[in-house]
Amino acid sequence: MSRWASGSQSGLREANTAKIVDAVKRFGGLTQVELAEATSLSTATVSAIVKELSLSGLVETRPTSRSGRRAQLVTIARRAGLVAAVQIGSRSMKVRLTDVGQDVLADRSMPLPADHAEDTVLDRITLLLIDMLGMIAADADDLIGVCIGVPAPVDPASGLIAYPGVMRRWESQPVAQVVEQRLGCPVLVEKDANLAALAEATLGTARDVADSLFVHASYTASAGVVLGSRLYRGRSGTAGEIGHVQVDPTGSICACGQRGCLETVVGADAITAPLRATYGQVTFKDVIARAAEGDPGCARVVADAATALGRVVAGVHQALAPEVITVGGELTEAGPIFLLPFTSALRDTAPQGRSPRRDPVPSSFGKDAVLVGATIHILQSTDPSRLLEDRS
Length: 392
Ligand SMILES: [Zn+2]
What we know:
Elements (H helix, E strand, L loop, with lengths): L10 H17 L1 E3 H8 L3 H13 L3 E8 L2 E8 L5 E7 L3 E8 L4 E8 L6 H18 L7 E8 L24 H9 L3 E5 H12 L8 E6 L3 E7 L2 E3 L30 H4 L1 H5 L3 H4 L4 H9 L3 H25 L3 E5 L7 H13 L12 E2 L6 H13 L2 H5 L4
Parallel strand pairs: 4-7, 7-8, 9-12, 12-13
Antiparallel strand pairs: 1-3, 2-3, 4-5, 5-6, 9-10, 10-11
The site of zinc ion has 6 residues, from loops.
């Protein structure tokens, strides 16, 4: 039951209140007529509950027009400001707007072409964000910050991708500065695995321990390291770059220029390539979905990748001894087909008595781990007095 429902007078009223709040959060902003349609409640009930919610400060209403008619747009109250979390992946991007209470106001995603370029993607992010803000009758002035997660390490000193090859066509410009100029609010850029690690360490599975590791098994492989309850980035932001640990000295050439990196064995291309002769043109997502359904060939390649990844993570475990290891990213969507061989490799590679105390677990936030971490990163980086300013 949503926390918004507390204080209502009856179970039915509470349930109806929760329905309305959930609909407002899901769609960003709705008129009362739209809310009645979305919740199957009468307009009189919607009107009474919206009035109660706005008196308690949980929602706001403002005039708008729909199909030429004036109406009241209902949104979650956001006097304290909004946070935008952006996840740029290898083949898609996601944008989320939340209030400072981390309640989601709007969520959007968009496919990206392979080998996308910085300038066009940053244009799309800016346009999408402005559109999403418009949908909830807000604008860029309402943003207290934007955090962008990227699938590559970012050098904290320069703001650039830390080394060449891993995110081609993104290497020449500091992304944060470009977006800051366009939106006029603080922008942070961080490796996606670091953000997911931050999410787990703050609100997720690793919240009760000081040292933890998040393994991000996606189109590429990387990890986020939290030591002493703080994100550990290492020199030039490259800590946790497990994708570029050499696992086969005679292997293929990796995007980073080295030979036989883990990524040449567990990355999206490495997973789809061995299936082409038998399965034809398959995508990374197809392979994962089929593996989860029990297709033996797809399950084989996912399990092999999980084993290779588990062996490298075993080395990280030996070096850093984290209490908790969490896994996320598309590859983990294959479920036990991924998790069982990954766990076995992690245990089997450890010296006697030094295997992890706890088995690795899937992310507490599923596909949202990076976005949750991005929101937390902005909130943790924002001066608390900024949140208390009267923005009305
Ligand atoms: Zn490499």
